[in-house]
Amino acid sequence: MNETKTEFYIESASYLSFRELCDACRDQAKIGMSFGRPGVGKTEAALRYSGWLLMESNLAVRNGVPLRPEELLSGTALYYKPGITVSPQRLKSELTVHRNRFFDMKERAFSWTRPGEWIAEKESHRVRLIIVDEAHRLKYQCLEELRDLQERWHVGIILIGDPGMESSLPRMFHFADRVRYAEKFEALTTLEVSQYVDYQAETLQISKPRAEVYAMINSYSRGNPRTLGHLFALIERILKINSDIVDGISSEVVDTARELMLVRLGGGNLKSFDQSVELASAV
Predict the structure, then answer these.
(1) What is the arrangement of strands in the sheet containing 156-161, beginning at the earlier edge strand?
(2) Cα–chain-centroid distance for residue 139?
(3) With contact defined as beta carbons under 8 Å apart, do 246 and 255 qualify?
(4) What percentage of the chain has pLDDT greater than the value 70?
(5) In 3D, which of 146, 152, 109 has the Cα closest to residue 130?
(6) How would you classify the pairing of strands 129-132 and 77-80?
(7) pTM of the predicted model, to two decimals?
(8) Dihedral sign, CA of 134, 136, 139, 144?
(9) Which pLDDT score, from 0 to 100, does residue 277 have?
(10) What is the pLDDT of residues 28-48, one digit of tens each?
(11) CA 174, CA 8: separation in Å to the nearest integer?
């Protein structure tokens, strides 16, 4: 997993709902599903809930000394992203290896922080929830393998995928019958987009934009965090290039950044970067 993560994170209403979904599936050892548009924040939510970036760092430790062991002790969720062509046998093998390494990591953390207690706390070492990202990639046989592992390991499972995954499950009756919860992961609300814009303005050390700029950004991004990230990367570049004449986020700057985006809302022709920067220079 090579995605770059930032420290800033908005605990949106969708994230809080996702967290409750994970808690329910973990505690009841049942299967749940979270689906939503690409870039809406599903993967980031899964990584945050599971604390997987810390887990992944510890899985790479070679000297036996755990990183932030106290935080590791509370981890109960395993994050897994299957390959595009994964087979049932490979899925089972990868998850088994993942689970065993997770157990060893937790055991090492207990031994480091609470020597002599790890045997008594052995039950807390086990995986209680498996979060499967990009689950729409999985064929029926792989889903059946997951169902079998869920029963034998007595764990909860969260399937994360794109819209349409939930409507395709009824055709897989035996598996669909085991899915207890299905929730849509929604985009950021208008208020949450405003919080994102405020954070970016603070990071860029510029004043907050005018009200109409907030409305434009919300309309263009539709609350999609990935789109917001792309948009502000371009805004930052435009402001840097035109720092002598542009000192804030105006509607013209936002429109110019939008024109530079390969995928954007609305019509219009794609322009080269130099052509679009000229628009910002005219501000």
Answers:
(1) 77-80, 129-132, 156-161, 31-35, 179-184
(2) 22
(3) no
(4) 85
(5) 146
(6) parallel
(7) 0.83
(8) positive
(9) 43
(10) 999 999 999 999 999 999 999
(11) 41
Q: Give the pLDDT confidence score for residue 264 in this predicted structure.
A: 52
Scan for tokens 């999609």, then name that residue. 224
> Which of 216, 235, 217 has its CA nearest to residue 225?
217
Low-confidence ranges of the chain (pLDDT < 70): 1-7, 63, 114-125, 262-283
As a whole number of angstroms, the distance between CA 18 and CA 12 comes to 10
Structural tokens at position 239: 């402001």
Tokens of 212: 């109409």
Residue bearing tokens 């897989």? 172
For the chain, give the number of residues: 283
CA distance 198 to 168: 39
Write down the pLDDT at residue 123: 58
Pairing, β 129-132 against β 156-161: parallel
Tokens of 203: 């990071």
Which helix (DSSP H) or strand (DSSP E) does residue 33 occupy?
Answer: strand 31-35
The residues facing 147 across adjacent strands are none
**Number of alpha carbons in the 13 Å side-chain half-sphere of residue 276:** 22
Residue 73 Cα to chain centre, angstroms: 22
pLDDT at 106 (0 to 100): 82
Residue 30 structure tokens: 């049942």
